[in-house]
Structures are given as C-alpha cells and as structure tokens.
C-alpha cells in the first residue's frame, strides 16, 4: 500500500474514531442532533460502537485488506443511513456533516481495495 493510501486510511479511521468518542462521551454537538433527529437514546451506544469498530477495521485493513474493505463498506452504509436520517428529520442544513465522514471512508475503502 502506498504512503498516500496509508495516510488516507489512518486519517479516515481517526476521524471516525473521534466521532465514536464523541458519541460515547455524550458531546452536545453529536447527541443534541441525535435528539433532534429522533434517534432513540438506546441506539447511541450501538451507533458509537459501530463507528469505533469500523475505525479499528480500517486500520486492520492496512495489513488485512479484506477487513479494511468490509469496514469501509459498513461505515459507508452507516453514513448513508445518517444522511437518510437527517433528511427524514428535515434538517437539510445538516446533510453535509455525515457526508464529511462518508467521503474519507469511501476514499479509504477504494485505496484499500486497489492496494
């Protein structure tokens, strides 16, 4: 895997990992939006866990590419679901936020797949 691909994967994993940390520590900029979007509180730990495991999977993908690809696909589906949730809540101004996570995850997945 090239140096650029490695950097993209690590940055994407760190970005998603930070998002998971923000859920686990109930940062207001995340959980307030969950409330506004109608996401049940009982889902928050599961959503944070999915992000954390996806971030770990991206990093493991540096050595075992199929795991990185699976993690990227899972995270991409997660963030597409987040876009749908935001749209259903009619919070159109918030649509760019899950896209800011989706883009590097897709890039990391593509770079892992082509390595």
Question: Would you kindly provide a written description of the structure presented here, covering whatever features stand out?
Answer:
By secondary structure, this protein is mostly helical. 82% of the residues lie in helices and 0% in strands. The chain has five helices and no strands. The protein has helices at 3-24, 28-37, 41-60, 65-88, 96-113. The mean pLDDT is 95.
Summarize the structure.
By secondary structure, this protein is mainly alpha-helical.
Structural descriptors:
single chain, 115 residues, mainly alpha, 5 helices, 0% strand, elongated
How is this fold's topology laid out?
Elements: H1 3-24, H2 28-37, H3 41-60, H4 65-88, H5 96-113
The general outline is elongated
Distance between the termini: 5 Å
Low-confidence stretches: none
Strand content: under 5%
**Protein structure class:** mainly alpha
The total of beta strands comes to 0
- Summarize the helix and strand pattern as letters: HHHHH
Sheet with the most strands? none
Gyration radius from CA atoms, angstroms: 14 Å
The residue fraction in helices comes out at over 70%
Mean pLDDT: 95
DSSP helical segment count = 5
